[in-house]
């Protein structure tokens, strides 16, 4: 491996320091946005449980909350996990942090626009399926659709910029074949490829493609907006899920990317690239673009073969990467003296949450099962599993690790255990109520349940208790990690 | 740089703002297929020419039927719609064998004979097999209108009614498609007939039939679904994204050769 020149080393060290600062800022954004957006979820479950009774606000607030809660948390998941992956990747490639800061600024602008829209009760749901944003039936002002399009454009530009920067940074160090680990397939494990580089390459290419799908989708929205003529809703729905499904999958993969790099710090066992891992991630790169078809099983206008491809691709993207990662994680802890801290516990549990939620997702992507479960709370159950007790745990684990690493503040073991226990019990209890609701055919997206579905109201009440446990866990997390964050910030400024 | 971004953002917002309110939508007075699809029709008595009375179920139990609402004094859409239906059904074939057409008057002053005289130039019986003209009692007409979404309103100071041109496709007593308009093309009629045969058309109700960039196009003649131009929009992201990634790595090759000494070593 080539050695660095002195100038190059100084410049590289400077970029790494800036990357640490950026990661710290995103850690703060996570600790700010996660509770706010999470409280919108609490509000929705409270609304469904009818405990608000007479004090219940207008139902439009439920749907506005549903929209911001979904859009916001998908956005937070994608961005924070992306920064987490870049943070560990910056050990291997040189990233231009100016581009990343610009994207961060644009992302904040996009988020502000979405919050403004929430206050104006923009509520087409987080799928914002065309042409619904334009047809409010008096539910929201027409200007909110315009604000939404601007927000979408700003976020699209921001994220496309940093995906392109990621590709540029990897390409500056690795040829494509090497970055995708193809030399391992030829039986030649040299040069050694860090797993995070493999994952980041797959994510960057798929990310650019997903964001180009968002551009195409946005163009169709603008055609409608300016010409007033309809475009085919099925085309736009395909593009929406092409973009949205790939984006949320990427968020998960980003989490796996930093897991590969960070967990070995606690297990003391290096996580190396191997042939099964290369095969799995190369499969993901190809198949992730077709898996979104499972969102359109109910669209009978799609030809049958498209639906079959959707099911095969869903299995193809979920199983190889998940199996490689889950077996890898278990191998990391099996009969090894793992240093269990807040960060390592959350990283481990997050991976297991991804696995459990993934099973729910694979079940839901099976056409025969989807016909029963499609519009029930089973859907909300599986994605809350791999997002809340999966990706959110991974991101909280990353920020806990980051602040610990940068501050050097020792962890309060008792508090860390209380955090993990509250989040674990609260998180799984909460999603269990969604699963049970799904089994009882309780529909999703209902603010209130009719008499025939009273079980939905009861389960929402039980879910509230578990949500309160999650709230407690997050509060304790903010106390523990917030303290470290300020210490890390001070240390970074001093350096 | 920041100023430039702000200027572009302001421009975009201005352009968006100036275009507000241009969004067109389906005329809300036209019957909405989505609102009535799969509803059951009421089994009401129909008064036919020659004093014959038949239950509506007698028609749909015999074979699928198309139901059309007209009135004999209509100076507007009724005649063109029926002429179009007659011409199209003759070219597509099957009327009388595979399906039948029941034309009902919604004007309480009409008799079956008047309808025949007006639309078939005969006061005795329909000139075309498979066609039936009849009237229904006002209370039954109301039930049919509720089920199908058809409506009419008198036009002041005339003997005319304002009403949509509408063909309701019925299979085993249920509405399976609704066609709205002053004429029906062979492709549209074939799609109705296919649905009436119980062969679901992989199509979907759209307010405007002339959409650009459809994903798929349905051919009612063969029943096939073919890719359309909208598919380009789905293929475009990978077709642009993959070459873009390849190009980036190709450009990175030059940088790798020149700055190999400046990259960090793997830990």
Description:
The complex is a heterodimer of chains A (495) and B (267). Chain A is globular and about 65 Å long. Chain A has 2 domains: 8-56 and 376-495; 85-337, Cytochrome C Oxidase, Chain A (Up-down Bundle). Chain A has 15 helices and no strands. The model of chain A has no long low-confidence stretch (mean pLDDT 93). In chain A, helix 1 (6-49) runs antiparallel to helix 15 (454-494). By secondary structure, chain A is an all-alpha fold. Chain B has a domain at 33-207: Glutaredoxin (3-Layer(aba) Sandwich). Chain B has 8 helices and 11 strands. In chain B, a hairpin with a 4-residue loop joins strand 1 (45-48) and strand 2 (53-55). In chain B, the strands form 3 sheets. In chain B, strands 2-1-5-4-3-8-9 form a 7-stranded mixed sheet. By secondary structure, chain B is α+β, with helices and mostly antiparallel strands. Residues 18-25 and 260-267 of chain B have low confidence and may be disordered. The longest helix of chain B has 29 residues, at 230-258. Chains A and B meet through helix 1, helix 4, helix 7 and helix 8 of A and helix 1 and helix 8 of B.
């Amino acid at each position: 491996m080539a050695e660095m020149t002195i100038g190059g080393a100084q410049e590289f060290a400077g970029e790494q320091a800036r990357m640490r600062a950026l990661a710290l800022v995103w850690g703060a954004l996570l600790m700010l946005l996660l509770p706010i957006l999470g409280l919108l979820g609490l509000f929705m479950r409270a609304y469904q449980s009818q405990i608000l009774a007479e004090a219940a606000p207008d139902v439009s607030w439920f749907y506005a909350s549903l929209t911001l809660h979904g859009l916001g948390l998908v956005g937070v998941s994608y961005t924070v996990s992306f920064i987490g992956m870049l943070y560990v990747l910056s050990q291997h490639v040189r990233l231009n942090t100016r581009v990343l800061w610009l994207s961060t600024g644009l992302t904040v602008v996009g988020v502000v626009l979405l919050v403004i829209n929430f206050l104006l009760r923009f509520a087409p749901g987080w799928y914002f399926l065309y042409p619904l944003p334009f047809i409010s039936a008096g539910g929201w002002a027409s200007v909110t659709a315009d604000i939404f399009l601007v927000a979408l454009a700003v976020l699209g530009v921001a994220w496309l910029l940093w995906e392109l920067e990621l590709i540029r940074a990897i390409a500056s160090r690795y040829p494509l074949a090497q970055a995708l680990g193809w030399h391992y397939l030829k039986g030649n494990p040299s040069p050694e490829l860090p797993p995070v580089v493999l994952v980041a390459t797959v994510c960057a290419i798929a990310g650019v493609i997903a964001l180009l799908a968002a551009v195409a989708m946005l163009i169709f929205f603008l055609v409608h907006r300016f010409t007033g003529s309809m475009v085919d809703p099925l085309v736009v729905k395909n593009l929406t899920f092409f973009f949205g499904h790939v984006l949320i999958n990427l968020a998960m993969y980003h989490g796996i990317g930093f897991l590969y790099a960070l967990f070995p710090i606690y297990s003391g066992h290096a996580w190396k690239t191997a042939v099964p891992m290369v095969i799995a991630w190369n499969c993901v790169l190809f198949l992730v673009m077709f898996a979104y078809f499972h969102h359109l099983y109910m669209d009978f206008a799609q030809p049958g073969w498209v639906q079959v491809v959707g099911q095969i691709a869903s299995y193809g993207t979920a199983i190889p990467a998940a199996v490689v990662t889950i077996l890898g994680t278990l191998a990391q802890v099996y009969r090894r003296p793992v240093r269990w801290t807040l960060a390592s516990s959350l990283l481990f549990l997050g991976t297991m949450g991804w696995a459990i939620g993934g099973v729910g997702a694979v079940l839901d992507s099976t056409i025969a099962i989807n016909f029963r479960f499609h519009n029930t709370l089973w859907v909300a159950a599986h994605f809350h599993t791999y997002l809340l007790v999966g990706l959110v745990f991974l991101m909280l684990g990353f920020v806990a690790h980051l602040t610990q690493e940068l501050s050097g503040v020792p962890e309060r073991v008792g508090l860390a255990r209380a955090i993990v226990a509250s989040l674990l019990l609260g998180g799984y209890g909460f999603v269990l109520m969604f699963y049970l609701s799904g089994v009882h055919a309780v529909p999703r997206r209902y603010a209130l349940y009719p008499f025939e579905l009273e079980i939905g109201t009861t389960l929402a009440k039980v879910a509230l208790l578990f949500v309160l446990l999650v709230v407690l866990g997050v509060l304790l997390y903010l106390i523990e990690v917030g303290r470290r964050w300020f210490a890390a910030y001070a240390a970074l400024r001093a350096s | 740089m920041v100023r430039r971004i702000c200027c572009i953002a302001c421009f975009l917002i201005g352009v968006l703002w100036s275009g507000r309110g241009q969004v067109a939508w389906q005329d809300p007075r036209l019957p909405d297929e989505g609102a009535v699809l799969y509803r059951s029709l009421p089994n009401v008595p129909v008064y036919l020419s020659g004093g014959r009375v038949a239950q509506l179920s007698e028609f749909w139990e015999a074979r699928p039927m198309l139901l059309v609402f007209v009135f004999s004094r209509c100076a507007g859409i009724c005649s063109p719609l029926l002429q179009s239906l007659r011409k199209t059904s003759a070219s597509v074939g099957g009327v009388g064998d595979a399906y039948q057409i029941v034309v009902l008057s919604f004007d309480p002053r009409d008799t079956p004979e008047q309808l025949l005289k007006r639309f078939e130039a005969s006061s005795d019986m329909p000139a075309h097999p498979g066609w039936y003209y009849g009237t229904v009692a006002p209370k039954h007409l109301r039930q049919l209108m509720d089920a199908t979404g058809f409506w009419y309103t008198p036009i002041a100071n005339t003997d005319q009614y304002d009403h949509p041109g509408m063909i309701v496709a019925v299979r085993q007593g249920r509405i399976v498609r609704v066609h709205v308009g002053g004429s029906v093309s062979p492709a549209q009629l074939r799609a109705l007939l296919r649905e009436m045969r119980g062969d679901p058309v992989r199509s979907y109700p759209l307010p405007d039939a002339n959409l650009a960039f459809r994903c798929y196009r349905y051919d009612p003649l063969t029943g096939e679904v073919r890719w359309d131009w909208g598919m380009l929009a789905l293929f475009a992201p990978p077709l642009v994204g993959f070459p873009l990634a390849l190009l980036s790595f190709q450009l990175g090759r030059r940088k790798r050769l020149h700055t190999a000494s400046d990259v960090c070593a793997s830990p």
